[in-house]
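Give me the fold.
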Amino acid sequence: MALAEDAASVLEEFVQNEIQAKDRVVQDCRTNAAARDASIQKFLKANGAGQANPKEEQYGKAILSSYDKAQVYQEEKI
């Protein structure tokens, strides 16, 4: 016969799983933003600041979107 878990243990496990899932999403958002930023920095290093990066606006929006999404998930954990 399997041991019955009490409600508090089940709830605690559920909450921990939810927090871990949100942590993974936040980490993915930060990784995505860092990758886009690194791409912009690589272009600047290779071509200098005088030349416009054709993808900088697109990457900038993606970075801001990633940070906004990470902030939402971070606030949900509280």
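The chain has a mean pLDDT of 90.
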